[in-house]
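G., the chain you wanted modeled:
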Amino acid sequence: MDLYVYYRVRDEDAERLLPRVRALQAALAAAHGVAPQLKRRPGSTDGMQTWMEVYPATAAGFTDALAQAVSTPDLAADLGALIAGPRHTEVFTDIPSCA
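Predicted structure as tokens:
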């Protein structure tokens, strides 16, 4: 199962948010063996960027671990102050190949 988490970031907050998201992803990688990616749409619209965290090939329970990590009081305050609006999580699974 792959997780895609997207949210909006004000241009002026992007530089301060980056190390916080990288730290979150590094902690999740160490604890859960995931290989996170961080992406963004090119450019910005009305001073806003769209960022996406990608967590490919996650194990069962990772969605809950991610939610718990993000809701940790210090991290939640750090991210919440720099993200414009909610984080949206989408889950995708592989389509089996036809044999």
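The beta strands are 2-10, 37-40, 48-55, 83-92.

Shout if anything looks off.
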